[in-house]
Amino acid sequence: MSDQYKFNLAEADIPKAYYNIAADLPKPVPPTLHPATHRPIGPDDLAPLFPMGLIQQEVSAERYIEIPEPVREIYKLYRPTPLIRARRLEKMLDTPAHIYYKYEGASPAGSHKLNTALPQAFYNHQEGVKKLATETGAGQWGSALAMACNFFGMACEVFMVRVSYDQKPYRRILMETFGATVHASPTDLTNAGRMVLAEQPDSPGSLGIAISEAVEVAATSGGACKYSLGSVLNHVLLHQTVIGLEAMKQMEMAGEYPDVVIGCVGGGSNLAGIAFPFLQSKLVPPNNKGTRFIAVEPTATPSLTKGVYAYDFGDTVQLTPLIKMYTLGHTFVPAGIHAGGLRYHGMAPLLSALYDAGYIEAVAVHQNPTFAAAVQFAQAEGIVPAPESAHAIRVAIDQALDAKARGQKRVILFNLSGHGNLDLAAYEQYLDGKLEDYEYPAEKVAEAMTHLPRVQEKAAA
Ligand SMILES: Cc1ncc(COP(=O)(O)O)c(C=O)c1O
């Protein structure tokens, strides 16, 4: 075996098509429902919010969907991203495991979010849309969409969850540098925001609330402005498969195949991105290689490990269609932990269905051990990870230590979804011992479940 660290592909190796896992599912994902009729929605219901190019991808059953050439052209700024063997971390842990990470922080936006921001901006631009409205938690998604809108000459309006707006001023400045307008959500600019502020004037905000605001701006714009979501939806997960498609080639270059694939989960897009191309072999017999897939979430936002698999709204104010997903309830207002991008009440329907069917496992971790893993990783590998990505690192390290305890060789692949260079205030709090661990109480989950919409599933199907 060589002593290589980095496994780099050429620009010509940037995938030419996204992988659509919907083509290989044992059974289709339950349909998205109209919030009033509880009947499956059609393309026309989504048209006020999304361009037809994306709606078609949302419902497509084609296995491979071509990446538009103008998008591939911009991907060349940073793709293919490197696959790196964490040899120094392996040494530090004294483990027989081989640890690989796909480094999506190499994107100019600092995370994997640009992979979907670019095609989303492209399809909107192609259909004459002038502006995109969106929400952002930590600001990673907002900065990616601001950059993509800038590349395609469109305006961008971002509703940033207040707690992150206050914790992470540099992300706001980054978005503004790319020409975006940024508000601390909840705002008094929308009905949704005003409703929340009337009940709780000092609301810290949540992704659910910010989504309501951005959806309202798009839905009332008369078509000039559409809405863009950075995770959860099928087309977003589809775009992220460029990560796994590249990683498969790179693992081949390394002469190994992963025993475990790990990603943090907010709405589920970066895990899906790295996992789905490998997961195909598990779905399509007889190629099952026995790989395990692990979703890592914060104990403060445990949608997979403590939530229920049910129809729910994607936002707080009940403007979106109903999605069958693992959810903590759309009324969920998370604690102000530092992984802002993971504080969402639900999980992507595709990932939820695969978790429900047992193809994916889930683990919840506290923020202090997560930051301990992040610091250990930074000291070994020289990259300060985003707090979100650090959740994947925690479990990658735990896997490597478990392999050591059992004296096993294990090939571990995780997605380093972003860097944390603009999250240093969170690191300072951790280093000063000021971060608190928070376990979301089961009673709160039970209470939120009483607010779920009552859907007759048979009628819906
Ligand atoms: C760096 C990073 N990783 C992960 C996530 C979580 O999102 P998803 O589960 O869609 O990948 C975010 C969300 O903002 C993020 O910024």
Approximate shape: globular
- Find the structural class using helix and strand composition: alpha/beta
Query: Roughly what fraction of the amino acids lie in strands?
Result: 15-25%
Rg over C-alpha atoms, rounded to the nearest angstrom:
20 Å
Number of strands: 15
State the share of residues found in helices, binned by percent. Answer: 40-55%
Strands, helices and their partners?
Elements: E1 6-7, E2 17-19, H1 43-46, H2 52-59, E3 64-66, H3 69-75, E4 83-85, H4 87-93, E5 98-103, H5 114-126, E6 131-136, H6 140-151, E7 155-161, H7 162-167, H8 169-177, E8 181-185, H9 191-199, H10 207-219, E9 225-227, H11 234-254, E10 260-264, H12 269-283, E11 292-298, H13 303-306, E12 308-313, E13 322-327, H14 349-356, E14 361-365, H15 367-381, H16 387-406, E15 411-416, H17 424-431, H18 442-449, H19 457-460
Parallel strand pairs: 5-15, 6-7, 6-9, 7-8, 10-11, 10-15, 11-14
Antiparallel strand pairs: 1-4, 2-3, 4-5, 12-13
Helix pairs in contact: 2-11, 3-5, 4-15, 5-6, 5-11, 6-8, 9-10, 11-12, 15-16
The structure holds pyridoxal-5'-phosphate.
